[in-house]
Amino acid sequence: MSLSETPILATRGLTKRFGGLVAVSDLSFSVSRHEIFGVIGPNGAGKSTLFNLLAATYPPSGGDIEFDSRPTAGMPTHLLAQRGMARTFQNLRLFGDQSVLDNVLIGSYRHARSGLWSGLAGFGRATAAERVRQEKALHWLRFVGLDSLAGQVASDLSFGQQRLLELARALALEPVLLLLDEPASGLNDRETERFAEMLRRLPGLGVTVLLVEHNMQLMMSVAERMLVMDCGVKIAEGSPAEIQANARVVEVYLGSEETA
Amino acid sequence: MRSLVAGRESTILFGALVAALAVIFVLLRGNYLFSSVVMAGIYGISVLGLVLLIGLSGQFSLGHGAFMGIGAYGSAVLSRHGVPPLLACVAAVVLTTAAAAIVALPIVRLRGHFLALGTLALGLIVASVLSGWHSVTLGPSGIPDIAPIAIGPLVIRGEAPNYIFIWTVALLCLWGSINLWRSSFGRAALAVKRDEDAAAAMGIHVVSVKVKVFALSAALGGLSGALYAHYVTFISPERFHLNASFELLLAALLGGSGTPFGAVAGALLLLILPDLVAPLRDYKVIVYGVIFILVSLYLPRGIAGTFEVWQRRVGRRDSAGAKAADSSTAK
Is the same domain home to A124 and A244? Predict the structure, then answer.
């Protein structure tokens, strides 16, 4: 099997229990390289738990996860990030007191790990490498349309802008896999549409996207394949058209939303 | 963002500090305040360590006097046994750093109150070792007649040579800290301080960053202690007791931990204030207590931090004014 055929992310029998509650149960799926893969499901379906398992925030109770053909069990978060897995947070977690540009520069840390000594001696500031990093950070800010705000303090940005900044910060990692946790929540329709346009450009840049999202419209418009969860189990997997035609999904997810 | 540590301002401020120190050297030489300024240089290095610890990685220490103690005693004991004082200083800094790195591994995993308690315990342990380990430290009576530092044939003895030597070392430490603050390591440490989970998600090894900053902070404490020993030429355990830790912390908070310059401001104030207001010396502890409360209530960012906020506000008003002018001319 060539590199491009091995899935970037695969789970087998993934299970997470909190006490007596089984939040994710025996879940197996895989995400191919350079696709946008969506995870949907009604509230309490286990989407967030799944996200936290993939991002290694929680250890699984059973089953395993492979990222880039390597099991992630016991791997600390920072090593996953150094291997190219980036994530955003559902409740924005920017470095609020730092500048917009600095936030993105922190995102590029895995390419720019200057140590304590060179930091003390003042290398790294004037070097060509630092200029390249600044240039790249500005590139990602331009990508999300925040370059004019590079010097602002991150917490001064509007909510929608902060969401975009989190995306830019995650992209600065130059990830092979980007995990997005409800990135459109709190965005208005116009902002969501712009966000979708950005997401669609990512596979072309070599980034595989796994998107956990509530917003059905966004999901249907960007995801190439999706996984539908309910009560911790997989009830369907397929293209948006297949999902929309799936009777079980309509009953569990869309049906429940109509009555809600 | 206009910040003291990011941009040209810090270079200007650093230059202003060097100039001010030169002026002090010319004007205050022979004055009774002069030795307090020398002492402020020594303590400033320790306070700088605390400012890095608090300001960069968001850790806290109630036992920083312990590192000064290890540095002072390390250097004094070595030079008593015939090691040249300069070499003894270097060895003492290495010893302090090693000791800190060992205690850091368990200690940096503690957060908030537990970290403070851990460092407090460390301070107590070191203090009791210094007075109890009689055969090495000579116990509570202290070590007298410590040799002054010599660089080659040049012996640093007397106020003026010490002023130049100590402030040169202090300014080098300050310069390094400013660089560090702006480096990619500094950015990573600031990220850790703000949000450890988000920092880890950026690929930052949180524990490693915290251990490194803790060890660096202790190294500065050790250096400061060693310089103290060879300047004063006499040390006793009580000098590095909890009181010392408390004063260092007060200086760091008073000066402000948002920028390395806070350490200089804090140390100068802490050492010169009691000289300027003589009656203060007798009620030092009470006065410090009151300052501590007032600072945490009214100057939570310290002097340097408050200056920074004020400067940013002026900057913002300027740019807002410029924009208003632009739009009015456009009409």
Answer: no
